[in-house]
Structures are given as C-alpha cells and as structure tokens.
Amino acid sequence: MQLKTITGIFLTFICFSVWGQTYNVSSPDQMIKVDVELNGSISYTVYVQDEQLIKPSIIGLHTNLFSTDNFKGVKPREPFFVSETDQLVWGVEKEVHSWYNQLSLVLNDSLELQFRAYDTGVAWRYVSSYNGDIVVYKEDANFNIDSNNTVYFPPVESFSTPFEPQFFPQAHHQIQDEAMAMTPLLYQSKSKRNILISEVDLFNYTGMFLNKTADGFKASFPSYPARESEMIWGRWRIIDHPVLSRKLVRKTEDYLAKSVANRTFPWRAILISENDAALTENNLISALAQKPSKGEYDWVKPGKVVWDWYNDWYLEDVGFKSGINTQTYKYMIDFAAKNGIEYINMDDGWSTLHNFDNNPRKLDMDEVLAYAKEKDVDVFLWFTWQALEKDLIKHLDRFHKMGVSGLKVDFFDRCDQVVVDFINTLAEECAKRKMLVNLHGAYKPTGINITYPNVVNVEGVLGLENNKFSENCTPVHNLTIPFIRNVVGPMDYTPGAMRFAPVEGYKCNWNNPKAMTTKAQQMAMYVVYHGGVQMLSDAATYYEKDEVALEFLSGVPVSWDESKTLEGKIGEYIIVARRKGDRWYLAGMTAMEDKTIDIPLDFLDDVNYSMKLINDGVKPAELLSKIKELNKSDDLKLTMKATGGFVAVFEVNKE
Q1: SS3 304
Q2: Is the pLDDT of residue 322 over 50?
Q3: Under DSSP, is residue 566 helix (H, G, I), strand (E, B) or coil?
Q4: What's the CA gap between 382 and 350, in Å, rounded?
Q5: What does each C-alpha distance from 525 to 98, 223, 483, 518, 653 come to in angstroms?
Q6: How many Cβ atoms are within 10 Å of 89's Cβ, its own excluded?
Q7: Which among 14, 117, 173, 287 is placed 20 to 30 Å from 124, CA to CA?
Q8: Distances (CA, A) of 211 to 180, 218, 251, 329, 646
Q9: What local confidence, expressed as pLDDT, does residue 238 receive?
Q10: How far apart are CA 240 and CA 493, in angstroms?
C-alpha cells in the first residue's frame, strides 16, 4: 500500500538550527519554512519565501499528565526527509504522492511535538507515550495573521450546528471579535496566496472551531458531554421529525477529551497554495491521514445514487401515485438498473425515526430489497445517528443480514468527542460488515475517507437540498465550495437538479425545488465536485425526458485516476479535467457573469480524440450537445453563460 523513503539528515532540505531555543524546518522545495520557538511556551511562525503567512502564534496542550508550558528542556530528534506514495481505494487520484521534512521536539521522555513541512503546507501534532489514561483540559492553537487579509469566514452560532455555512469573504478586521467559524477556514495573504486551516486524524478527540481574535484566530473546542438528551418532541414521540428530535448536549464536563495516554493527537493542518486553482489540487489532508492496510477495502464500490427525498418522491405519469411506497422504489430500482446506476437511497420516511419495524403501510421493505437484489442494484438506508446509537451492533447486524449495502446517517450536528467516537466506531463496524457509510449533518472530513474508505461521502456543506427551504445555495456559493470545503475531502452536495429558476426573485419550494444554476452547470458538478457516491437528486422521470443529461449521468465516474484544475477563481469560475482510464472529462462552472475561455488541451494524451461537448442551450433548462474531433495540440474555445457551465467527454478515436 505504501512506499516510503526515509533519508537521514539532509541540510539541503532542512534548515535545523538552535539559537537559544529556536528551531526550524523547511519544505523539500525550500519554499515554505516553519520557525518553532520555545520560551516558556511554544510558538510557531510560517513563511513562504520572505512572506510571513502566519505570525508568531502560541500552541500548547494541557492535560492531567502534562502541560506543554512546563517543559524543562527540549531534545530535538534528528530531522529527516520522507517520500511516500499511497494507493487510494477511490478519490480524485489513483495515488497520492507526498514528501516532507519532519522536525521532532522531545518535550519530555513521554511527549513529542512533531512539525512537518510539505511543499503544499505544514502540520503539527503531539505524540504521547504515557501509560494510563489522559484527560485534555485545554488546547492552544492560534493562527495569527495580518488584519487586512481577506478571510472566507464560515460562521456558526455555537458548537451545535449542521455544518452548512456560506463562506463570506471579508477583511479580518471587519469580522466581529470572538465570532466563531467552523473549519476549514480560508484566508488570503497580501500576495494572494491561499492558506486553508483544518485538521486531520480526528480520533478520540473533539473537533476544532476557530474564534476571531484581534491577532487572527484561536482554536476552540466543544467540551466532553456530561449529559445529553433528545429534544422534547423526539423524547415524547410527539412529532416524528428529525429536526425536532436532535440529540443535544445539556451539560458538559470541565475537559475536552479523554482517552488512553499512549496515542497520537490530531494534526493541525495548514494548506498553502500559490493560486486558487492550485488550492483545489492540494493533497495535504490525504497525505497526513492514516492509511488502511493494502487490499483491506477492495470491496468498496463507489457509484451514483438515485435519490428520493430532494424531489419529494415525485414521479411523473407513471400510472400510480408516487410516494413512500413499494411501487415508487421499484420504479427507482428499474431506472437505476437500466442506466447502470449502482445505488438507490431510501431516505427519511422508510420507517419512523426510532422504530425500524414501523414502515409506512404501502411500503413492503422485504419486497423492495428483494427486487433490488434481483436487479443488481444496491440500497442505502437513511437513519438519524441517535436512533442507531442506542443499539448499534444489533442494528448493523440486522441491516447487513437484510442485504442493505450502505447507511446514510444524519443529524449529528455536533463534533464533541462522543459524536467523533461514534462516527469512527460506525465506520469501523460497517467496514467489518462490508457496508458503506454516507455521513450527513456531520463535520467536514478529517481524512476519515482515507482511513476508512467505506466512508464514501460526507455532507458538511450547504448543498442543493437548501433549494427546498432557503435561498442560500447561490451560484457564488457553488463556485466557492470547490476551493474550500471540497479541498479537505469528499462532499455530498447532491447535484443533478433538472429544473431552473433565476437568482433574481428566487423563492425556495419544498415540494418542487429548483436550482439557481442551469442544467449544464448541474452536469458539470459531477466532474468538478467529488465524492465516493454522488446523488442524482431529481426525479427519475425528469432524467428520462432528457436524453443528453441521462446519457452523461449514466456514464460519468465518481472516482478518478488523475485530476487537474486548469483555471479558477474563488466565487467566480472553475475549469477541471479528470481522467478515468483513457477517457478524459472536462467541466466548467461560472457564477454571476458570462465567461469566455480558451482551454489548451495539452493535458490529453498524444492520440486523437472524439469529444462530446454538452453546454447550455437557449433556455437555462436546455442542453445542447455536439461531437468534434480534437487532439492535445488544439484549444477548446467557448463561452459559459452566467450561472451556467459545460462538460466535455474525450474518448480515444480508435478508427
């Protein structure tokens, strides 16, 4: 699975020096440098060339066993260079290549602080070898920046949140002091470099938020829950609705996390890129994440999913009343089987929230699951996490025996250690049963899809479903999330809207949702956005009426061998090319302005291709397609309409 080269001390790669108690490590390409200063406390500074991206910032960890403010002496280990190549089960690349220099500071006999400098960013973590148990009372993690830096700030009101923000660009000094944001958070330096803050390997710990300070941002963490309970509607079963049945923290302990003391702590990751397009290719999260054993997850099958909930179980002119019933799901299964789509999703309503035996009267689950098996279509079932939590192993065994292939688990709305531990346990236990997991209402990926490849998607994004109940899923938002949220891992935005309404005067509609973007942009999302499963969000009968859309959606992959972002600007437009086998997919999206582009096709192999181009017609809900012969010496010239896009599929011309 992993090829690794470790080379001893290479002064050409690492500047390792001690003046008093200051240490530094540089990236292999010497562009990025981290200074670590120990002077009663620990602080770090990050430079790219001569630009200070992060000013001196305090970090620290305070537990029942130690406090990093009380170290008595530091013994630096010999720095070393590592080059790694990891095979991925699925993703935007077949392999992830990474190389870094590591500086390790031994704070005492049982505690080490590791800093890594990659060409794509920096990261640090603590490694403890204490015996017994550890209780973490506080973690200091500061990110000090220039007050004029532009910040894409994803605000949250509290630690209880669905993790579905918009990213609002504003100068740091314009953000209210102590305002809280979820991660990932992006800011841009004076030179327009991009710096994205997140975390990796979130195990036996609590998730990281950021609070705005006068100097930058400081990490904040939800405390360990002392008492939890469902909202009163859920406890009393007055209204069987997931929004009214969330599990809330009523009281907290005076600590953040507790675990065995012999452990590694989460990485604090800082991704750095020279421009917006390069940011989408930054693989630091995948490089840092724990990798599974070779061949352990070969059974994982990425794919597309026919969805029910977004379109309100609507089917047009089918000769029966569509809804949560056996006929509707059998129609969805037939549609999936006919068009090579791997999964259907049975969402909220297939049972009551807490009683999985209480199915709607007209839904015969045994018949639906048997029919799906007959048609070779796999099934995801939707649950709230608290309903599964009450007897997780029993429930997983039951649904595995029934032939369910995946679980869509929802409404976590927290990232304290209780929820983090449950999610990791869920991933591990589902893997034992060869079941997939799609996490909704959950925090962003922290490498979980690398460690547990059966976690095939994570929501943690304001996605298409918002068209049912808000006006927030705007074209600008759609062109912001590829550069921020999707950078840290798979993103279940759930594209595929077949109905359009203009931005001006847009009104949400629960039963008949429409998108503020053209159908061509919705098609482009299947290439630009990435995740191990991708929903077809709209009604099957709408796709059946559009031959161009259906042919594309039937064939487009969700896992890729190679990916390149050719152009892009946050909130404005993006052009992405991805390869699967010998076929290339090129896609573009634009926000509120027309965009004329001239794309060199030099990413193609040196053969002749037949290109099928799909772009906007005269009407926003119309697709046009044409076929043209091209090769890598050609350019593709076209204009994307505002709120629109295109896809182009390049197949090797074998004539």
Answers
A1: strand
A2: yes
A3: strand
A4: 8
A5: 27, 37, 13, 11, 26
A6: 23
A7: 173
A8: 4, 5, 22, 45, 39
A9: 76
A10: 25
Helix (H, G, I), strand (E, B) or coil at 62: strand
**β-bridge mates for residue 216, sequence order:** 144
Edge-to-edge strand ranges of the sheet holding 455-458: 455-458, 436-439, 406-410, 378-384, 343-346, 303-306, 533-536
CATH topology of domain 2-221+256-288: Beta-galactosidase; Chain A, domain 5 (2.70.98)
Inter-axis angle of helices 417-432 and 392-402, nearest 10:
30
Q: Calculate ∠ Cα 426-432-436, nearest 5°.
A: 60
Q: What is the pLDDT at residue 264?
A: 98
Count Cβ atoms within 10 A of the Cβ of residue 364 and give its class: 0-12 exposed, 13-18 middle, 19 or more buried: middle
CATH 3.40.120.10 assigned to domain 303-463+491-499+519-560? The reply is no
- Bridge partner list, 171: 150
Contacts of residue 644, Cβ cutoff 8 Å, sequence gap at least 6:
517, 518, 520, 521, 589, 590, 615, 616, 620
Both tokens of residue 350? 């297939």
How many other CB atoms sit within 10 Å of the CB of residue 205? 24
Q: What are the structure tokens assigned to 182, written together?
A: 């979820």
Secondary structure (3-state) at 44:
strand
Q: What is the pLDDT of residue 281?
A: 98
CB neighbours of 628 closer than 8 A, spacing ≥ 6? Answer: 610, 611, 613
Query: Distance between CA atoms of 390 and 412, rounded to whole angstroms?
Result: 14
Whole-number Cα distances in Å, 75 to 72, 105, 186, 345, 431: 10, 6, 34, 54, 41
Q: Is residue 418 within 8 Å of residue 393, measured between CB atoms?
A: no
The pLDDT mean for the chain works out to 95
- The single residue listed with the structure tokens 């397009």 is 277
**Helices then strands, each counted (H, E), the chain:** 13, 36
pTM: 0.96
CB-count exposure of residue 548 (10 Å: 0-12, 13-18, 19+): middle
Percent of the chain with pLDDT over 70: 96
Dihedral over alpha carbons 435, 438, 439, 445 (to 10 degrees): 100
The closest of 102, 60, 99, 100 to 77, measured between CA atoms, is 102
> What are the residue boundaries of the structural domains of the chain, listed by start?
2-221+256-288, 303-463+491-499+519-560
Cis previous bond, 184, omega within 30: yes
C-alpha 183/C-alpha 209 separation (Å) is 6
Cβ proximity of 29 and 81 under 8 Å: no
Rounded Cα gap, residues 216 and 556, in angstroms: 42
